[in-house]
Amino acid sequence: xxxxxxxxxxxxxxxxxxxxxxxxxxxxxxxxxxxxxxxxxxxxxxxxxxxxxxxxxxxxxxxxxxxxxxxxxxxxxxxxxxxxxxxxxxxxxxxxxxxxxxxxxxxxxxxxxxxxxxxxxxxxxxxxxxxxxxxxxxxxxxxxxxxxxxxxxxxxxxxxxxxxxxxxxxxxxxxxxx
Length: 178
Fold this sequence. Notes:
The chain is mainly alpha-helical.
């Protein structure tokens, strides 16, 4: 027994510290067998953290708010596919075929947050996925995730997760077999 961990993998014996830690153990097994992306996707369903270690900072997966309506669903999906591009309010509004003011009102009604807040969460989530699944540099991840610069990447990670991209990668990067 180790009070500082949520679960133990001792080769042929795996054990956890309770119900929630059992979920952590299951996600650990999925991550180990199928990779970080699959574990993260599964963790989003029950709104569980994709990976937690006892005794260290908890990196809770920040899911995008679930929409209450789907009028702008196409624009949100489009935005997720274009995170590496500049997505100012005018571009989103043009895609949705509404005025910027109407877009903000509808977006807030459907998601509970502003387009800016929603996009920031999406940018950070995409950066997290890239840190977990690739060996891209901070500058490359910043560009691909739409955060612009490694300075901005570090600031957004600190604000959202209380850690650095380097520490996050060290904790969650899954090296792929060649």
